[in-house]
Structures are given as structure tokens and as C-alpha cells.
Design a protein that fits this description.
The complex is a heterotrimer of chains A (359), B (270) and C (412). With 359 residues, chain A is α/β, with parallel strands linked by helices. Helix content of chain A is 27%, strand content 25%. Chain A is globular, with a radius of gyration of 22 Å. Chain B has a single domain, classed as 3-Layer(aba) Sandwich (Rossmann fold), CATH 3.40.50.620. Chain B contains 7 helices and 13 strands. In chain B, strand 8 and strand 9 form a beta hairpin. The longest helix of chain B has 17 residues. Chain C is built from 10 helices and 10 strands. Chain C has a 4-stranded mixed β-sheet with strand order 1-4-5-8. In chain C, strands 2-3-7-6 form a 4-stranded antiparallel β-sheet, with no helix packed on it. Chain C has a two-stranded antiparallel ribbon with strand order 9-10. In chain C, helix 3 packs across helix 6, helix 6 packs antiparallel against helix 7 and helix 6 packs parallel to helix 8. Classes of the chains: A alpha/beta (359), B alpha/beta (270), C alpha+beta (412). Strand 8 of chain A pairs antiparallel with strand 12 of chain B.
């Protein structure tokens, strides 16, 4: 069962225009035929706009103001109406593509195909996508469909010398590199959550409904079932505050205290790999090398030693407070505060103190 | 079943010795290379699938020549053979180039499934797999926690992590699946496997063998691959500002709690 | 001898060089990871409880570790001596008791591998290689330690069997082994080197009993048994080699097993060094980490130098022993002598680096120090090793000496 490859430089469902032609094309829209900044929006299961998309839209506006071209957004969803309306509060122009087939199909590839089709007559510009699993799926597919270039995991994006300048952390955050594109075709940037704060524009923009006509031109991946995992928690991906527990929490019951603290602080609960492997919390809450990389404003580490595999997942957090019995645990080397003590005693005292404060 | 596992040799994260070279590209000789951690999960899944359904696992990688040695562990774990695309011109390749090269390499391999890791410890991008799938027109299933092929029916089911739990996806084979840690703990190579790895083949291909070219500037978009065709460039680097030394708080929990709250208030987090 | 020599070596014996092959490096790294993840967490408890770690035995069997010393034809890995020693070293770093499971499996099997008939090997080796059965080596007696040739356990031919009476002491794994390699006197009138024969005793069997287990300073999880044989019958088909070959077999065994003890000692030293270095980086006194003090640095440097020297010597000894020749015994003894003393010194210094904390069981170094001592005692005390080396220097062949002056060597 040998597989066949797409033509070099082309791909399915994107209109088949050759790379050279696309690179030189000016097409319609955009001031002086210049490419714009396009936000690939993501939606929540209930159809509302994902929080990270508001952040991307704000970033796109900032880039547009710095000379990057017009900012616009694209929403592809089973019913894009609500999210597109919301996105329009951030951007002057939103293309809404409702594709009912997406209700029971995997999203990433078909969405990218729709986006590529929508962009085919536009001059090559910059596309911003989220760096989470869905954003990556779209970004990677667009990379092939648009014969583009990509920079990933941006922690800062600015506009300089006519191109996007992108910062990203490498080597587990030990180094920050700045990169730019050496390419005139489509340029894609995947952006981490919490890089910008979402800010609506002064006035709402326009929504253009575009039909999702014809086959998406990518292979179909059908959703045959949806399984709910009990206790699926608040997502840590874009949480502002994370209360994380490690091996010291001792069991699923101990994580109730973590949840109470998170609730009180308005945050989410995270965990180290040890806690996930022990089955105390689902994998979705794992932070670290094989889990998620997060950048909350506050990371409260309860009973976490700070070994490198976990460190790389959270060391860029704004404020890191560790509660640990061992004052010499590795986490002390990169925390702002280390509280030496039992995590339950300190945790309960902190909860009490926070309750008292709120009155 | 014939399963391909995309396995990338990366500098060992545990050695914590990664650095950029003078050309601001990753210095791949700075630390001993290992198979990317996330690729070990998909390799484990592949090995379990061929144990259940029969068949073989082929490792495919794009790396410097030393990559053949790095793949040895994968062979020792039980993969049947390796295919290494190696070419000095590929040093400094960007994601697009990498995707083109891997797609070209896969064209000469027969497979029912291509498995890829969630992302790599050195690049952490996670976009190459989707690009490869698109170039090869393969159905693409990502964030897999469980992979269940049905070879007789020519279909495969995948449990994909979703915000509320899991979505169960189904498609026809051949397909490309991106895995996660939930696929299961990778096995240690058995000692017999280590000895057997010696006689397993790692075929090598250069850019020209794949019908690709490194000529021309990547900016013109003419399909060239390799470092000189890279469409991105590193313009600078800096070390992030170090935090001040941690304030160590001891004493009664109630007092410690007050200190924490004071810091949170000072930094306007509450 | 064919069953013993491994096929995996890329060594260059006699030319003064050796080089680790890629297999050996991968094996070393794999076992290090396995030991760090699965054995280190158990080590303290094994020592504290004094219980034989059956789970570790299963772990080693599952990962083909116990198959290392055996030929591929019988389900083994066919590893050469250097590869076996690399494995022992990595496990000993984590837990010496656990490393003994591997080294004794090799030691107990050596007579069978050196001199067993094809029938015996085909019958007994597969289960040993798979780890399904454990084997022990029983030479030492209460009155025959360093003077092993003074053994009194008697084996008398009776029809198709031998009847064995007597007992053994200090037998590692004696209470958990399924096969005990027993050395017994078959010809009391013969000269020293021809008195003994060697038997593979499959237990349990009537007359075989474990009298007691020793309470030891270290390697507490390793059962060290006193065995008693009371009119115990062993089929003549289980006699290894000819009657009278026992002494020669025992001595031939030590040439191959002593480098294993040296490797064990190197592993112990390395584990202690790693612990001490980590502590020196973390522990702060007088406002700085103790690793910044020169006296600590000097200790750590000496510990490292000594450990590395012992390691290189051991690896080289493996290659020389594997190649055979008249210098084999000298190499084996030098390695064991140097490495054993290094382990004792390095672990003692490791406790010193930890200060008072090193004396408590909060940290592993006190256990490592206790464990290190045995490497100076078993498989020939350090004094016996010196006799072997001196004999090699003074012109007598390093092979076994005929007659009474040749008495030497204990076992583990």
C-alpha cells in the first residue's frame, strides 16, 4: 500500500497555483497589494471564540499598526457565526466559513484547506496560528498547502524591516532567539498563549460569510465517537494562574486542596509527570517536557522538586512560588519564593489567609 | 502491518548541554544525540502494533550521519530497519525543508501507518508532521492517546485528546498519526535486542537520491531544500534575565501564608 | 572452553588497548537507565529488610540481563567478559545486592560452561539463561576458606549416583538457588589439586538443607547461606568434568569471576562518588556550597581518579582474561585487588563528604560503605590476590600450582 506524494510545492485543495506565481502575485485587497496579517481563529466546543484567538487578534492589530498590512481573521467551524462575531470585536475584517461537515470530522486539515482556498487570491502575508495542538495542525497543513515558511512557539512577535520578528525560547528556556523570515511567500507564525492580553478594537469589524463549497480536498478523518473524561479540568494552556502539585501531594485526594487554591485564586490546577503517571490527575494537566509548556503569571508549585523535565514546562512563569519541605530542592534555583514547610499545612493556611482577605 | 516511525536524533536534553553554533543554528555536536523522547512513545506504540498484528517497523530520520548510530536504540527496541536521509547540505534546514525531505523519503517506503512524535525537544514546533501528511495526501490524525488499526478493513481508529476527554477518529489506511505520551511507556531495549541491532540495516539517502535539489535560493520558492534554502533566519539571541535569588520563608504555616499573600499582592496577582 | 567465550568483543588483547563497541555503549546506557529508574528506588529497602529482591531478579530476567553470561545457542546473549562486567558495574552503582544476582549467576555457571558436557549444558543452561532458575557456587566450608583445598565435604560413588555428606558456608544465593555447584572430595588420598570433584546439585533434593543465613555488615539483601548435605544423592550425570577436576575448575572459574567483582567494586565506588558530588553541589555551609571548599574538592578528585583507574584496569583485565594465556590470573587478581581497595576508600570518603548525614541512612553512602567491604573479602581475600600476583612475578606460572603450596582462593 504505497502512498503517493503531492507535487513538489503544491498540495491538495489549494487551487494548485504554483509557488512562483503565488510569490509574485499581488492579487486584490490590502494596501498597495501588500500581504496582510491573518489570524487563524480557534473555537471552543460550544462554538465560542477561544481565548487565545482574542490574544492573536490583538497581536495582529499591533503588527498591522506597525506596518504589517491589514489585519484580518478567519474562522472555520461547523457554525462560525458566533465566533466570527466575537472575533470581529478585535479585527476590522473577519471571514466566517461555516462547514457543517466539521461537526463530525477532525478539524485541523480541512480547516487549513478552507483557509488556503480563502487565501488563494490574497497577496502572501503573515498567518498567525495558536501553538497548541489544533493550531499546529492548521499551521503544518498550511505550510504545505501554501508552500510557506513557519516560525514556531513565538513568545513575542514584532514587525521590523518589513517582516515579522519572532522571539522563541529554546533549550528549555535557557536561551531566547529572535528570528525572521527570508521569504516572500506566505509566512506562518505559531504563537504561544499569554503572549498578548486580548483587547477589543475601538469598533467592531465586518464579518464576511464565505461558503464552504465543494470538497475540502483533504482526506476525510471522521469523528465516530466523543468520550467525556470525568473531571476534565479548566485548561491550563492559557491559565493566568496555575497551582501545581507534584509527588508530595500523595494522591488524588490531596489534589482537592490544589483545586480549592486554584478556585480561590481564579486559576487552574497543573501537575508534574509523577502525579499523572500515578493516575492522580489526567494527562491534560501535565506540565513539563512531555506535557504542556505554560507561561502563567503565577505558578504555585506544591511539593515539586523542580527537576529539569518539569522545569522546562514552567520556568518562564511570571512569579514562581514553591512550597517544599526541602529548601535545597532544585526549584529553589529559579523560584521567586521558597516556602519551607509541609505543602498541606502551608496550603491550608494560604487558603485561610486568602479567604480572610476577601472578607 | 508496515509501520514507519519518524524518529529524530536530538541533543540529549538530560545532558543540558545544548547550544547554538556560531551560525546561530543548533550545534548538533554539543551533546550526545538520542532519539527524541516523544518519538519513543510512538515507536513503542508501533512495536506493540506489530507484535499484535505482525509486520515490521521502519525508522525514518533526517539527520547528520551520526544519526545512524542514534537510531540504534530504536533498532534495539525492536524496529526492523532504519532509513536515514543525511546530507551536509541539509544542515540548518527549516521546517518546510524538513517536511519536503521526509515526504520524499517516505515515497519510497511502503506503509500502512506513519507515526510521528508530538514535537521535538530541540524544536518544539510540532508542525512538520502535518506538512508531511499534506504533501503525501495522507489522512492526518493528531494528539493520539490510543491507536487501533483494523488491517482487514484497511481502517484505523485513534483516540484523540480533546478538551473534554477524547474524540474517537476513524479513517482509511495509509494514514499519518501524531502520538502523545499516553500511548504508553517506551520499553528499555532488551540486551538481546541490543546485540541484534548490530545486524539491522540503516539505509542512507542523500538529497539527490530523493529527487530533490539544494540549488537556488529558498526565497524564490522554487522547491530547493536544505540549509541554504531556509526560509527563516536567526537574527539574534539573548539569555533571559535571571531571576533574583529566591526569598526563603520558614516558620509557622500561618506566617508563611501571610508572606505569600504579601508577594501576590505586591505583584498584583490577587 | 567454547561455551564461555563471547562473540561480541572488539577488544585488542595483548596490544595494550581496548575499545568499547557501540553495542557495549548502548548496553551500558540502557542498564544505567534501567538501574536508575527501577533499582535505585529499591536499594535502601532491600538493605533495610534484608529480603532477597525477587522483583529485581524478575526484572533482570525480563531484560535478558541474566542471559549475558550464556551462549546464544542456549538462549543466552553470548556476551564477552567485558560486556558482562559493564553490566555488573551499572547495576552495582544502584544496588550491590542486585548486582550479585547477575554475578553469581555467572560464577555458579562457570564450571558448567568451562567443562560441562553438551548434554549437561543443553539440559541446564536454558533455564539459567532465562533466569527461570538461579545457580549458586558452593566451595567454601567452615574450615576451608582461604585454604579452600582443605574442603571436607565428601562425595562417594554409589551406582549411578554420588552420595554427598558435609556442608558449605558463606554461599551467596544458597537459599534461593535451584542449582548449587558443589565441590566435594572424591579422592581423599590424592594430592591437593586432584582431591575435589564438581557437581551440579539440583535442589530441593533429599538431604539438602539450608541451615541458616548469615547476618552481615553489608549486601544484606543477598542471602548468604550455610548449607548442609546429609546423604544427599546427586546423579553421576550431574558431575561436571572428570573426577578430580574440581580444583582446576574452581581456579579456572576465579580468573573469569574476579574481574566481575572488580567491576562490582568500580560500580560501588562510582555510585558513592556520584552521591558525594551531588551533595557537594547542593549542601551549603558557611554561606557557600561545600563543593567550593578545597578540602572537599581534593577528596572528590581523588575519589574520581581512583575510581577511573580501577575501571580502566578492570576493563583491560577483562580483555586479557578473555584472550587467555599465562597472565590471565595475574590480571584478574590485580583488578580485583585494586578495585576492591578503591571501593572501600571511595565509599569511606563519600561518607566523609556527607559529614554527619553520611552516617545516617537518610543517604545511601553508609550502605555503600558497608557493601564495599565484601569486595575485599570474597572471591579471594585481598591477601590471596597478592599471593597470586606475587607468584606471577616470581616466575612461577600464574596457573594453578600443583601440590600443597598451591592452596588459595575462597569464593563468594
Amino acid at each position: 500500500m504505497a502512498a503517493s506524494a503531492g507535487k513538489a510545492g503544491g498540495g491538495a485543495g489549494a487551487g494548485g497555483a504554483s509557488a512562483e506565481a503565488r510569490a509574485g502575485k499581488t492579487g486584490k485587497a490590502g494596501k498597495a497589494g501588500k500581504g496582510g496579517v491573518w489570524v487563524v481563529a480557534e473555537t471552543n466546543p460550544d462554538g465560542s471564540l477561544a481565548k487565545s484567538s482574542g490574544e492573536l487578534a490583538t497581536l495582529a492589530r499591533a503588527l498591522a499598526d506597525a506596518g504589517a498590512g491589514d489585519a484580518a481573521g478567519i474562522v472555520v467551524a461547523p457554525d462560525a457565526t458566533a465566533a466570527a462575531k466575537e472575533l470581529a470585536t478585535f479585527l476590522p475584517r473577519v471571514i466566517a466559513i461555516s462547514d457543517p461537515a466539521l461537526k463530525d470530522h477532525a478539524w485541523g486539515q480541512p480547516a487549513a484547506a478552507r483557509i488556503a482556498a480563502a487565501l488563494k487570491d490574497e497577496p502572501p502575508g503573515t498567518v498567525l496560528a495558536g501553538a497548541g495542538p489544533d493550531g499546529r495542525d492548521v499551521a503544518g497543513t498550511l505550510l504545505a498547502l501554501l508552500d510557506g515558511a513557519v516560525l514556531v512557539n513565538a513568545t513575542a512577535v514584532s514587525w521590523a524591516d518589513g517582516a515579522a520578528s519572532v522571539e522563541m525560547g529554546v533549550f528549555g528556556g535557557k536561551l531566547i532567539t529572535t528570528s525572521t523570515f527570508a521569504y516572500k511567500g506566505w509566512k506562518i507564525v505559531t504563537v504561544r498563549p499569554n503572549v498578548t492580553t486580548a483587547e477589543p478594537a475601538a469598533s467592531a469589524g465586518k464579518v464576511e460569510k464565505v461558503a464552504a463549497s465543494g470538497a475540502a480536498g483533504v482526506p476525510a478523518v471522521k469523528v465516530v465517537d466523543r468520550l467525556e473524561e470525568s473531571g476534565a479540568a479548566v485548561s491550563i494552556d492559557d491559565a493566568r494562574i496555575i497551582v501545581a502539585g507534584g509527588r508530595g501531594v500523595g494522591g488524588p485526594d490531596g489534589f482537592e486542596l490544589m483545586q480549592q487554591l486554584a478556585d480561590r485564586l481564579g486559576g487552574a490546577v497543573g501537575a508534574t509527570r509523577a502525579a499523572v503517571d500515578a493516575g492522580w490527575v489526567p494527562y491534560a494537566q501535565q506540565i513539563g517536557q512531555t506535557g504542556k509548556i505554560v507561561k502563567p503569571q503565577l505558578y504555585l508549585a506544591m511539593g515539586i522538586s523542580g527537576a529539569i523535565q518539569h522545569k522546562v514546562g514552567m520556568q518562564t512563569a511570571g512569579t514562581i512560588i514553591a512550597v517544599n519541605r526541602d529548601p535545597d530542592a532544585p526549584i529553589a534555583d529559579f523560584a521567586d519564593m521558597v516556602v519551607v514547610g509541609d505543602l498541606f499545612e502551608v496550603g491550608k493556611a494560604l487558603l485561610a489567609e486568602l479567604e480572610a482577605r476577601k472578607g | 502491518m508496515k509501520i514507519v516511525v519518524l524518529a529524530k536524533p536530538v541533543p540529549d536534553p538530560a545532558a543540558a548541554a545544548e547550544r547554538l553554533g556560531s551560525d546561530n543554528r543548533l550545534d548538533r555536536s554539543a551533546a550526545p544525540n538520542v532519539i527524541n523522547g516523544n518519538d519513543e512513545y510512538t515507536l513503542e506504540a508501533a512495536l506493540q502494533l506489530v507484535e499484535a498484528h505482525g509486520g515490521e517497523v521502519t525508522l525514518v530520520a533526517m539527520a547528520p550521519a551520526s544519526g545512524a548510530e542514534t537510531l540504534r536504540k530504536g533498532l534495539a527496541m525492536g524496529a526492523t530497519r532504519g532509513l536515514l536521509v543525511t546530507d551536509p547540505a541539509l544542515g540548518g534546514s527549516d521546517a518546510w525543508s524538513t517536511a519536503r525531505v521526509l515526504a520524499a523519503a517516505l515515497k519510497e517506503v511502503e506503509f500502512d501507518l506513519v507515526l510521528a512524535g508530538f514535537d521535538t525537544s530541540d524544536g518544539v514546533g510540532g508542525v512538520v508532521s502535518a506538512a508531511v501528511a499534506t504533501l503525501l495526501k495522507l489522512p492526518y490524525l493528531s494528539s493520539a492517546a490510543k491507536i487501533e488499526p483494523n488491517p482487514d478493513a484497511g481502517t484505523v481508529r485513534v483516540r484523540r485528546i480533546s478538551p473534554t476527554g477524547f474524540d474517537v477518529l476513524e479513517t482509511t489506511m495509509p494514514a499519518l498519526i501524531v502520538g502523545t505520551q499516553l500511548l504508553g511507556t517506551p520499553r528499555y531495549p532488551s540486551l538481546k535486542g541490543i546485540m541484534a541491532a548490530r545486524s539491522k540495516e540503516v539505509a542512507q539517502r542523500a538529497v539527490a537520491d530523493l529527487g530533490l535539489s539544494t540549488e537556488g535560493g529558498g526565497s524564490a520558492g522554487d522547491g530547493a531544500v536544505g540549509g541554504s534554502a531556509s526560509r527563516t533566519t536567526v537574527t539574534g539571541k539573548r539569555t533571559p534575565p535571571a531571576r533574583a535569588a529566591a526569598k526563603v520563608v520558614r516558620g509557622a504555616p500561618a506566617d508563611a501564608a501571610k508572606e505569600i499573600v504579601a508577594l501576590l499582592a505586591e505583584r498584583r496577582l490577587i | 572452553m567454547a561455551a564461555v567465550t563471547g562473540t561480541a568483543t572488539a577488544s585488542t588483547a595483548g596490544t595494550g588497548a581496548y575499545r568499547l563497541t557501540e553495542d557495549q555503549i548502548l548496553l551500558r546506557d540502557t542498564l544505567r537507565e534501567l538501574a536508575d529508574e527501577q533499582i535505585v528506588p529499591r536499594a535502601a529497602e532491600i538493605d533495610r529488610s534484608g529480603e532477597f529482591p525477587e522483583d529485581i531478579r524478575q526484572l533482570l530476567a525480563r531484560h535478558d540481563v541474566l542471559a549475558l553470561p550464556f551462549p546464544e545457542a542456549y538462549g543466552g546473549v553470548g556476551a564477552d567478559l567485558l560486556t558482562q562486567c559493564i553490566a555488573i558495574e551499572q547495576i552495582a552503582r544502584a544496588c550491590v545486592t542486585s548486582s550479585l544476582i547477575l554475578s553469581v549467576q555467572g560464577l555458579g555457571s562457570l564450571p558448567l560452561l568451562l567443562s560441562g558436557t553438551e548434554e549437561q549444558q543443553a539440559r541446564l543452561i536454558p533455564d539459567l539463561a532465562s533466569g527461570k532458575r538461579l545457580i549458586a557456587f558452593a566451595l567454601t566450608e567452615p574450615e576451608a576458606g582461604s585454604d579452600a583445598a582443605a574442603a571436607r565435604t565428601r562425595a562417594v560413588r554409589d551406582g549411578d549416583d554420588y552420595v554427598i555428606d558435609g556442608g558449605k558456608r558463606f554461599i551467596t544465593n544458597g537459599s534461593v538457588a535451584d542449582i548449587v555447584t558443589v565441590f566435594a572430595v572424591t579422592d581423599p588420598e590424592a594430592k591437593t589439586s586432584r582431591r575435589l570433584s564438581c557437581f551440579a546439585v539440583e535442589v530441593p533434593t533429599p538431604g539438602f538443607s539450608v541451615v541458616r543465613l548469615e547476618h552481615k555488615l553489608g549486601i544484606r539483601g543477598s542471602p548468604t547461606a550455610e548449607l548442609s548435605f546429609d546423604r544427599m544423592r546427586v546423579p553421576a550425570a550431574n558431575r561436571i568434568g572428570e573426577e578430580g577436576d574440581g580444583w582446576k575448575l574452581a581456579m579456572g572459574t576465579f580468573d573469569r569471576s574476579r574481574p566481575g567483582i572488580a567491576a562490582q567494586a568500580v560500580g560501588i565506588a562510582q555510585g558513592a562518588l556520584d552521591a558525594a558530588v551531588a551533595y557537594a553541589k547542593d549542601r551549603k555551609q558557611f554561606g557557600q556550597r561545600i563543593g567550593d571548599f578545597q578540602m572537599i574538592q581534593a577528596m572528590l578528585a581523588d575519589m574520581d581518579a581512583r575510581t577511573e583507574a580501577a575501571r580502566q584496569l578492570t576493563y583491560k583485565a577483562c580483555v586479557e582474561v578473555e584472550a587467555g594465556g599465562p597472565q590471565a590470573a595475574r590480571w584478574a587478581s590485580i583488578a580485583k585487588l585494586v578495585a576492591g581497595d578503591a571501593a572501600m576508600a571511595v565509599t569511606t570518603d563519600a561518607v566523609q563528604v556527607f559529614g554527619g548525614y553520611g552516617y545516617t541512612d537518610d543517604f545511601p553512602v553508609e550502605r555503600m560503605m558497608r557493601d564495599a567491604k565484601i569486595t575485599q573479602l570474597y572471591e579471594g581475600t585481598q591477601q590471596i590476590q597478592r599471593l597470586v600476583i606475587a607468584r606471577a612475578l616470581l616466575g612461577k606460572p600464574a596457573a594453578r600450582i600443583e601440590g600443597n603450596e598451591g592452596n588459595e582462593g575462597t569464593e563468594s
